[in-house]
């Protein structure tokens, strides 16, 4: 065989960059070992951001979601040995898989926890980062792929029967912000007691506010659309005497709200006219980069409709995408997560309760139970990425070796 000069096999740097940008983030971690130039390139913040932008674009177009998005759930386990030899120490375990059900794995990350927790929570995800709460006092910003993390400033959460939360990225300032709202029932005369908090990553502090004037339906993390956290909430109004069966009472109606990350104001998303009457109940999701709602079935119905806001912020753009018939709807409140496969024929749905992940084949009208998570924490979706916020000297995130 004729020898080929190795120099003739070298590709221009820009072509190498383009090839690497097309690879999964997990593969890129291994390719850092190929050479010093590759390690330098892949480790750079500009490359990490370009790779993330490409992944987010494909997801918003409904392409390759099956192997770009991951589903994850956390629990706290005990390691057999501590580095100091003084017995087991709690560590975080992340059980995750691709959105198409492949590449399931469990990774363990030592966060330096001092006590066990049976109810850790993923409060939100954005750009491949997770906002994690342990023991209701310890907050972490974590990249589960690179295993970089930072313990962030704590905040005392005031009680609350229910909690909604999210993590977002404000692109103008290049800053991450966390949002938490807790909700307690205060009785008929004061139906809602709401506390809300906003975390600023650059300042590393929380602000407590009284801007969230909505009821929380159930514990929930935000649905991310255009990098902005959204939630389904409700309000109550007094029911007129002529409409109330037993005298004056309260009637609730669902709304969609989001937080403007620049002004930190809570704003409402316009609903279609048929939903604005308050007679419909729904859950939020996202498909092909569009905000979606899945209508709750009523009575013995086993059918739901999924609607999408084709043009964000335009009420008239709400469009019915499809309807699904399934016995699962008698047991669960389902939210759309993403399309999988080709041609948008399959949709992934997540149960609000019970930890079930289900794939529906819209063309063949088939369904498949993809996963039944056993832990008590919520299941979140996140994109595999290499990003982590840059830190001031002396305030760096902690990085752990990758197995």
Automatic annotation (TrEMBL):
SMART domains in UniProt: FBOX
Every F-box domain range: 5-51
Listed SUPFAM superfamilies: F-box domain
Stretches the record annotates as Disordered: 78-98
Name of a matching Pfam family: F-box
Record-linked InterPro entries: F-box-assoc_dom_typ1, F-box-assoc_interact_dom, F-box-like_dom_sf, F-box_dom, SCF_F-box_component
Name of the protein in its database record: F-box domain-containing protein
């Amino acid at each position: 065989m004729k020898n080929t000069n190795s120099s003739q096999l070298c590709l221009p740097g820009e072509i190498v960059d383009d090839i690497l940008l097309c690879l999964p983030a997990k593969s890129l971690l291994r390719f850092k070992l190929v050479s010093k130039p590759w390690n330098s390139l892949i480790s750079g913040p500009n490359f990490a951001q370009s790779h993330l932008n490409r992944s987010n674009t494909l997801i918003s177009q409904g392409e390759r979601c099956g192997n770009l998005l991951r589903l994850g759930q956390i629990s706290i386990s005990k390691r057999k040995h501590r580095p100091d030899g003084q017995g087991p120490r709690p560590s975080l375990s992340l059980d995750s898989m691709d959105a198409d059900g492949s590449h399931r794995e469990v990774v363990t990350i030592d966060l330096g926890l001092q006590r066990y927790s049976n109810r850790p929570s993923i409060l939100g995800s954005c750009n491949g980062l997770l906002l994690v709460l342990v023991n209701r006092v310890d907050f972490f910003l974590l990249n589960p792929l690179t295993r970089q993390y930072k313990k962030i400033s704590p905040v005392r959460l005031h009680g609350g029967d229910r909690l909604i939360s999210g993590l977002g990225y404000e692109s103008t300032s290049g800053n991450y912000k966390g949002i938490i709202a807790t909700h307690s029932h205060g009785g008929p005369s004061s139906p809602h007691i709401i506390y809300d908090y906003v975390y600023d990553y650059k300042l590393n502090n929380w602000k407590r506010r009284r801007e969230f004037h909505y009821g929380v339906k159930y514990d929930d993390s935000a649905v991310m659309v255009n990098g902005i956290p959204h939630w389904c909430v409700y309000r109550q109004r007094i029911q007129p005497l002529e409409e109330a069966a037993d005298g004056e009472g309260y009637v609730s109606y669902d709304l969609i709200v989001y937080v403007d990350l620049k002004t930190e104001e809570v704003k409402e998303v316009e609903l279609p006219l048929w939903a604005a009457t308050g007679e419909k109940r729904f859950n939020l999701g996202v498909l092909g980069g569009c905000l979606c709602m899945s209508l709750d079935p009523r009575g013995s119905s086993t059918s739901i409709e999924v609607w999408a806001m084709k043009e964000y912020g335009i009420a008239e753009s709400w469009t019915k995408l499809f309807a699904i018939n399934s016995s699962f709807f008698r047991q669960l409140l389902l939210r759309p997560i993403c399309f999988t496969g080709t041609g948008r024929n399959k949709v992934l749905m997540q149960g609000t309760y019970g930890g079930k992940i289900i794939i529906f084949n819209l063309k063949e009208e088939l369904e498949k139970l993809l996963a039944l998570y056993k832990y008590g924490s919520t299941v979140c979706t996140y994109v595999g990425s290499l990003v982590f916020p840059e830190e001031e000297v002396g305030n760096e995130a902690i990085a752990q070796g990758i197995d």
